[in-house]
Design brief:
By secondary structure, the chain is an alpha/beta fold. Helix content is 36%, strand content 36%.
Length: 137
């Protein structure tokens, strides 16, 4: 599995927000199909007396055409989410993307519709500042 170029700096930014990265990558197997989601993480909330568990697929959108990268990211997200629903229903899946990619995506009505209709949860990442800028649920 090749890591996206922002993988390691995104992981540090996630840890800087108080997340404990528990898996890099987060491996699950559904039937004979192995699935490697980029990161698994947990955060303890004392007020709720429980851990929040997430899995994150990190995408750069840099090496291939934008539309090809988009198809791959959305396709992976849907398959990974379904696998987590079956095997790890207490873990929420997010797609981490650069903030500038999100800005580009929201300018296209069809892309925003796909994000909304497929209920894709996003983590926006500023690649220059190496910082998480927003969580979109």
């Amino acid at each position: 599995m090749a890591k996206d170029k922002i993988h390691d700096s995104f992981k540090i930014a996630l840890e800087n927000e108080g997340w404990l990265v528990t898996n890099d990558p987060f491996f699950i197997k559904i039937g004979k199909i192995p699935i490697l989601i980029d990161l698994g993480a947990e955060k303890f909330y004392a007020a709720e007396k429980e851990n929040q568990k997430i899995a994150i697929e990190v995408k750069t959108f840099g090496l291939t055409s934008f539309i090809t990268a988009l198809y791959e990211a959305i396709g992976k997200f849907i398959v990974y989410r379904k696998a987590l629903e079956v095997l790890k229903p207490n873990r929420t899946l997010y797609l981490a993307i650069p903030s500038d990619v999100y800005t580009k995506m929201t300018k296209e009505v069809i892309l925003q519709k796909v994000i909304d209709d497929e209920k894709i949860k996003l983590v926006l990442y500023d690649t220059e500042l190496e910082k998480i800028t927003s969580w979109i649920k």
